[in-house]
Amino acid sequence: MKRRTFLKTSALAAGASLLQSCAEDEQYLVQPLERQPGRPGVSRWLNSVCGQCQAGCGTRIRIVDGDARKIEGQPDHPINHGGLCALGQAGLQDHYNPDRVRTPLTRSGSRGSAGPLEELAWHDGLAQAARAIAAASPESLYVVSGGRSAYVDALLARLTQALGAAPPAIGQVPGAETERAALARILGPGRALPAYDIAAADYVLSIGPAFLDRGHQPVQGTWAMAQVRSATAGRRGKLVQAEARMSQTAAFADEWLPIRPGTEGVLARAIAGALAEGGLLREGSQAALYSQLFPAAAPSIEEAAATCDVPAPTIARLAAELGRADRPLVLAGGSAALTRNGEFSTLAALAINLLLAGFDREGGVSVSEPAAGYDFRDLGEIEAGARSGGTYVVVEADPVHTRPEGRGWREALSAAESVIVLGSFIDETALYADVLLPLHSDIERFGAVEASGIARPTVSLARSAVAPLYDTRHPGEIVLALGAALDQRDALPWDSFDAAAQAAFDARYDDGTGGAWSQALDGGAFQAERAEAVLPEKLAAFDGPEPPASTADGELTLVLFESAKYGDGRGANKPWLQELPDTMTTFMWSSWAEISVADSQTQGIRTGDLVEIRSAQGKITVPAAVRPGARPGTVAVPLGGGYTDYGRYAAERGENPLALVGAETVAGTTAAALVGTGVSLRRVGPGDPAIYGRGLRDAEQIPTGWASMAKGGDH
Amino acid sequence: MTRWGMVVDTDRCTGCEACVVACAEENNVQTVGEEEAKKGRAMHWLRIERAVEGTFPEVSVKFRPVMCQQCGEAPCEPVCPVYATYHTDEGLNAMVYSRCVGTRFCANNCPYTVRTFNWFDPEFPEPLDRQLNPDVSVRVDGVMEKCTFCVQRIKEGQRTAKGEDRDVEDGDIQPACASACAAQVFTFGDLEDPESKAAKLSKSPRARHLLADLGTLPGVIYLEDQEWNPGTDVS
Fold it and tell me: Which of A176, A467, B57, B152 is 20 to 30 A from residue A689's alpha carbon, by CA?
C-alpha cells in the first residue's frame, strides 16, 4: 500500500467511526450546554407586547439559547398587522441595556443627582415605599403613571381609591387631553378619544396630527396609509397634511399645507363653510349639528387664506375634493392641539366630519373608549394644583423630563416628603427618587395593554417571553405588594398581576364562558365590537376661547414635536436609535433645531452651526438644520434630548427644548402648550454635529436615478 | 435558476426607518458612536434617502430606501483582489468576511455607496452582546460589509422547505426590512419565477432601476411614486 493510499484509507476510517458516534445525540463527545428548555441553537418565536409606547402593538420575540435576538410584529395582530416602528424594533436595547437598574435602590444623598444610591433587598424597598405612602395624607399623595398598561393603571386607581387619594395622573400622547375635550363637546361627557378608520378612507385631510411620526397609533397609521395608497377603497387615496412643520407625515402626504401655527381652526372653519356654501353636503350630513356647534358664520376663504397663509384657491379646491370623495375623513388634534387655542382648532377640524357624514361610518370617525374603565386624571391637574410637600409615586413616567420646565416638577420633587419611582433607568425623575424599584422589561413581563385611539377596543396580551435578567419585578406585582403592605387586600385581592388583569378583562369582555381571555392570551390579542358613536340631538355652541397664536414682533414661534426615533425621549438611551439618521434632517446622536432657509439667510446660519434659542423661560443651544421645508418664522426642535443621566447613550446629548416652555396651557384645559412659545434665535458659532453623509442626494441626480428600465430588459 | 430580488414601492414609504433598525438588529450591524459617525463611518446597510425638491412653500420630499442593489453586473465584484466579494448562482453579491483584507476597492467602485467598512472592532457592552444574532458573524476591524438580502434567512427558508420535502414557496422568505415594514414597501422573491409577486411587480409600468444608465442590472426594483388622480382607478 502506498503511503498516500494508507493516509486516505485511515482518514476515511476515522471519519466513518466519528460519523457512527454522532449518529445519536447522546453520543456527542461534548454535550452542549442547555441554558433553556429547547434544543441549543434552535430558534423559537414567542409572543409579547411592545411597551415602548402606549399603542399596544403585538410583537414576537426570537429566542435562541434563552436569549432574545430579534423583535418583530405579530403578522395578524389587529393593531400593527405585522409591522413595528423603529422604537419598537429597538425594544431589545431596552431589555439588554447596560444601564438598566438591576436591584432596588435607595438614596443616601440629596435629590436631583445620580448618587449616591445604595442597593436594597426587595423586602426593604417595598417596606420603605409602603411606609412613605402610609405616612402621606390622602390629599397629598400624587400617583403618576406613564400609561403603558391600562391594567397596571387600573390597579393604581384601585389603590388610590382605597387610600382616599385622588386618582392616578396618566401621562398621555401630546394633545390627547385636548382631543378628548373636543370629542366630548360633540358626543357628550366622557373621556373617549376620537378613533379614525384611515384604512378605509379614500381622502384624508389631517389638520395637525403627524400620525405617521408618532401619536396614538403610529404603526397602525402607517399600515392604514399603505391601504389607502393600495387602492383598497377602489382607487388610490389622497393624504393632505395641514401642519406648520414639515413632519414625516407631511413629507409623505400628497399635498402639504405649511399653515401658520395656531390658525388650524380657522382653516377648518373655512373649509366647513365652503362645503356648506358650495352645495357639497351629502346625504347624512349633520349640518344642523354643525351650525349649533359653531353658530357664527364661517370665515370666508379669503379671510382664512390671509390668516392661515394658505392660498385661497387651495382651500376652495380642498373643500371640493373633500365634498366629492366617497369616504373622506378629517383628522384632528396632534400639533394643532398643542397651541394656546388648541381646543378650538381640534374641535373645528373634528366637526368637519359632521358635514361629511363621517361619524360612525366606514372610513370615518368613531370613539376609542377610555381603557379598562378606571378613573384617572391628566398630569396637568396635578401641576395646576397647589403642591407643597407631598408624596409621589411615579410609575414608568419621567415628568421632570417630559413636562415643560415651567410646570415645576424639579421644585415639587425636591420639596416632596417622599418620592417613589418604579422604573428601569436612572432618568431625570429617578434622580429625585428616595426609592427606585426596578421593573421587568417588556419581554420579561406579562404583557396586558389596552390600546387607545383605535375604534374597536383591543387588548394585546402575552406571557413573559424570557426569564428576567436581573432582580426586577412587574409593575403590577409591585402595586399588589404595596396594597398588601398597606393593608388594602380588599381593594387588591389578587396574588398575581395576571390574575388581576384577567379579572379586569373578564369583567369587561367575557361572555360567561371564560374563553375570551385564554384565546387572547394564546393568539396575542382580543378585539371587541366597535362602540357606537351616537350623535346627540342637539349640540351646545362652542364657548371656548379662540385666542390667536401670538408671538411678539421679531420673535419666532417654537414648535416642539416627538420625533419617530426619540419619541418623548424614551428612545434616547438606545444606541440603534441614537445612531439612526433622523429621516428629515439625517442628524444623529443629538437634538437639532429646524430653521427655514429665509431665517437662516437673515442670520447667516448654516446647517451644523450652533444656535442659541431663548425664551422668557430659558435657553438652549443646539445645532441648526436648515431645511427647505421649514416654515419661515418657526423653529422646530424635537423632544427627547438633554438628559443629565438616563444611561451612557443618552446622557449629555442634545438639549431638552421643554426648558423653553413655561406654564402656558391650552386654553380651557390643563394640557401643556408645546407649540407657540415666542423665542429668539442667535448664531453662536460653528458646531460639529454628526450628520449622516451617504446617499445619492443631489436633486440633479434624481432624473438620472429614475431613468426608466428598459421594457422587458434583463434584471 | 433563482434570482433573488426585491421590489421597493416608494409610494408607500413613510420614512419611519423601522427597516433600518430591524436590519441592524438582524445582522449584528455595529453602532460606531458619535465621533466616528461624524466622520461618515456609520455602518447602516440600509438607509432612507430623501429627495427634496422645490422651495418653500412648494416643497416636496420623496423617500427611498436604498440598500445593496445586488447587481447582476456588479462593479464591486471584479475589483476584489481576494475574491471576498463574489456572485452567487442565486444572483446575490455575497461577501466572505474571512477573506476580506480591507482594500476597500469594492466600496470605491460601488455607485450606490452602500458598502461600509469596519474601522474598529465592534463593542457590545455587556449584556448588549446577548442580543446578537447567532446566525450572522460579527465582523471585526478591517472588514467590508453590506446588505446580504438576509442570506441567513434565505438559507433558513431553503433548509425548512427541504426538511418538509417541498420547494421554497413565494413569500416563505422575508428579509428583516420586509418583515418590519408596516407599510409593506418591500416585496422579496425570485425574479426568475414568473408567478412570484416580486416578479409580477417588477413588470409594473412604475418599475425603475436606480442609476439604470450604469447598466449594473440591479436585483432591486423601485416602484415610482404615483400621483393622486380622482378619476383613475389604479387597482
Answer: B57
Q: Dihedral, CA atoms, A441, A446, A450, A453, nearest 10 degrees?
A: 30
Number of Cα atoms under 13 Å in the Cβ half of residue A263: 21
Phi-psi label, residue A318: left if phi above 0, alpha if psi -120 to 50, beta otherwise: alpha
Other beta carbons within 10 angstroms of residue A285's beta carbon come to 18
Phi, psi of B7 (to 5 degrees): -105, 130
In angstroms, the separation between the Cα of residue B104 and the nearest Cα of chain A is: 16
HSE at residue A53, side-chain half, CA atoms within 13 A, is 32
Which amino acid is it at B198? A
pLDDT class for A694, splitting at 50, 70, 90? confident
The answer to whether B125 touches B132, Cβ cutoff 8 Å, is: no
Mutation target to probe the A interface, by most A beta carbons within 10 A, among B59, B117, B200 is B59
- A687–B contact, CB cutoff 8 A: no
Cα end-to-end span (Å), chain B: 31
Contact B128 A93 (CB under 8 A): yes
Paired with A611 in beta bridges are A622, A683
Spatial CA neighbour of A81 closest among A520, A446, A524, A457: A524
ipTM of the complex: 0.96
Vertex A203 angle, CA A200 and A207, to 5° = 110
Cβ pair A690:B34 closer than 8 A? yes
How far off is chain B from A258, nearest CA to CA, in Å?
A: 7
Contact A70 B26 (CB under 8 A): yes
> Bigger pLDDT: B226 or A337?
A337
Q: How much is the pLDDT for A192?
A: 86
Q: Does B87 touch chain A (CB under 8 A)?
A: no
Backbone angles phi, psi at B105, to 5 degrees: -60, -40
List all residues of chain A from 641 to 670 with a beta carbon under 8 Å from chain B.
Answer: 648, 653
A-B Cβ pairs (cutoff 8 Å, strict): 261
CA distance B62 to B13: 9
Backbone angles phi, psi at A144, to 5 degrees: -125, 130
A714, closest residue in chain B (CA to CA): B217
